[in-house]
Design goal:
348 residues; alpha+beta; 6-stranded antiparallel beta sheet; 22 strands; 31% strand; globular; binds 2,5-dihydroxybenzoic acid
Length: 348
């Protein structure tokens, strides 16, 4: 018998299933287990020249205290109303003005910051203050109290990346506010780096924050120097350029359990070969200009511009001048679940 003989009977049957909360798998199977990922993330650019003035306008509208977190969310056009930059990650741009405090709270989700402008900004995590400078990466492990402040001049602006969508997918989101706006400082600045981040480790290290790096701050000057030093001795990877990742010194793993982050340097005139991987990424340009071709569409980016990058989509990048880029993605989570996969095209 052919399928065509039964369409009506089938629909009648399906109608009988619905009230009992049943569904026919054979109508759904192809969608549930696609032959390869069909990533919904739209490649999309947020130019800093457009976002920064709006963020400063928000600064006239309400204080950081009022807002709790004064952030413009990068909301991917494919996921309107869901506060996601891509399929699995939240990202936004946060503003602290001189003298302000973003009050102490904690949440199950982990946060990672990439600092764009800061002359006097800081964040306090678990009793330790980390000063923020342009290009620094500062992490807030899930479950740790954190507050932000600003003792200096001018706006402090950074990009936030949080694993909120994944935490909420698992329905494991808890949060709490501290009654005091600022938590008590119990450690000297630089403590986490002294204990875990100088190339030395305690003789019997116990991870204070589970699968998170015990180091709160990764200074830009050090990361950048490392990248540029590579160029002196080795040629760039054809697919990745020069790239170094933010590592957990205790196990060599990614900096956070669900967010991976790395810094890429593409020398002037360098083009990467076609590459795709399953992780859902986003990128912030730190220095220079780069064009990214995604599935035949080209996006041009300059300093502080942010782009959402769909997973499993062929991509090439070209730097018209020396470019440094900060990437973050869910690769850390995908690898732990045994899901992450990459594919490399032909070197042209
Ligand atoms: O700085 O703690 O962009 O809790 C979103 C949620 C930043 C933060 C965000 C947050 C924070």
């Amino acid at each position: 018998m052919t399928t065509a003989e039964f369409p009506k009977d089938r629909q009648a049957f399906y109608d009988k299933l619905t009230p009992g909360s049943l569904a026919p798998l054979w109508e759904r199977l192809k969608g549930l287990v696609p032959p390869e990922p069909r990533n919904k993330t739209r490649p999309f650019v947020w130019p800093y020249t457009e976002v920064r003035p709006l963020l400063l306008e928000a600064g006239d509208l309400l204080t950081a205290e009022e807002a709790e977190r004064r952030v413009l969310v990068f909301e991917n056009p494919a996921f309107e109303g869901t506060s996601r930059i891509n399929s699995t990650l939240y990202a936004g741009m946060q503003l602290i003005l001189p003298g302000e405090t973003a009050p102490a709270h904690k949440h199950a989700a982990g946060a990672l910051r990439f600092v764009l402008e800061s002359n006097g900004g800081y964040t306090t995590v678990d009793g330790e203050r980390s000063e923020m400078h342009r290009g620094d990466v500062v992490i807030t492990p899930g479950g740790t109290f954190h507050d932000h402040g600003h003792d200096g001049e001018g706006p402090v602006i950074w990009v936030d990346a949080l694993d909120v969508p994944m935490v909420n997918f698992f329905e494991c989101g808890f949060s709490e506010e501290l009654p005091d706006a600022q938590q008590e400082i119990t450690k000297k600045n630089g403590h986490s780096t002294a204990e875990f981040g100088s190339g030395m480790l305690p003789l019997d290290p116990v991870s204070p924050f589970g699968a998170n790096s015990p180091v709160f701050a990764y200074p830009y000057a050090r990361s950048r120097n490392a990248l540029f030093a590579l160029k002196e001795s080795v040629s760039p990877d054809p697919y990745l350029g020069y790239a170094l990742r933010y590592a957990n010194p205790l196990d060599g793993g990614w900096v956070m359990p669900m967010i991976a982050a790395w810094l890429t340097y593409l020398p002037e005139g360098f083009s990467t070969a076609p590459y795709r991987a399953t992780d859902n990424q986003a990128m912030v340009v730190s220095e220079g200009h780069v064009s990214i071709e995604i599935n035949g569409e080209t996006f041009d980016l300059g300093p502080n511009d942010v782009i959402a990058l769909p997973g499993w989509t062929w991509r090439t990048m070209r730097a018209s001048e020396d470019a440094v880029m900060f990437f973050f993605s869910d690769r850390s989570a995908q690898e732990k679940l045994g899901l992450w996969k990459e594919e490399r095209g032909n070197v042209g």
